[in-house]
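=== RUN LOG ===
request id: a7f3
mode: sequence -> structure
chains: 1
length: 272
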Amino acid sequence: MNGVEIKETLGSGGRVFGCMLSAMGVTRFRSALAGSTMDFVVIDSEHGSRDRKEIQELCTMLRDAGIAPIVRIPIPLSHWVAMALDAGAAGVLVPYCETVEEVRECVATAKFHPLKGEYLTRAITTGEFPSEKTKQYLEKRHEDSIVIIGIESEPAYERLESILDVGLIDGIFVGPNDMTTSLGIPDEVTNETYLDVLRGVIDTSEKYGVPVMIHQQTIDTSKTAIELGARFVMHSSDARLMQDAMRKDFAELRSAAGAASAEQSEDTIETV
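=== RESULT ===
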């Protein structure tokens, strides 16, 4: 899918599916990704060490594979949004937002770049553009631009409606690790307190017609997210999916050969 197809699918009440690209740093995986049936991939540059050149190469590869590249930028600042879009991203995931001001700034850049300064402020707050021609140009330029806002703390959750009132938001993201830590129940993703927050985020966002993305790590937790109403389905990460597939296949082969099960090391893939 491209950005327009992602937005059309979600806008009609459908679901899209993808994963986090947390480890992959080369473009030789194009053929594997092209056969994955994923609609989008989130390239992590918040926790992953990626420079602009690498992000640009990954965006080009993913687009060529028919997958929409979305970049999770390091922090909620507009210049990171602009750099991701300039690298060829179909959209951005803006992490850990807590104030209306930072959301407005990032959304404005995602939708109206390269407009800057006072004119950018006018565009996002009053809908005023330098001219009708400028407005049409920017709308056409960003028709496939996706902006997803990270609601990853209790304060952000409490301000969710004010954040959604900014408008032009294409998705709301919940990071389980950050959110559960903020709630005082680190990584307890089956805790009812956390699940109640997910229900609240989804119910409130859907009232605004905005789909929710929850980064779950297992089939069971991803199914739970779908059952709760998440429509922007981000399941696991490249590293975890590869590790799980290797564990499953080699455990089956060892069993078939009558070999003793290899001792599995502690899972060291970080959940983010």
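=== NOTES ===
The two ends are 25 Å apart (CA to CA).
Residues 3-256 form a domain with the TIM Barrel fold (CATH 3.20.20.60).
=== END ===
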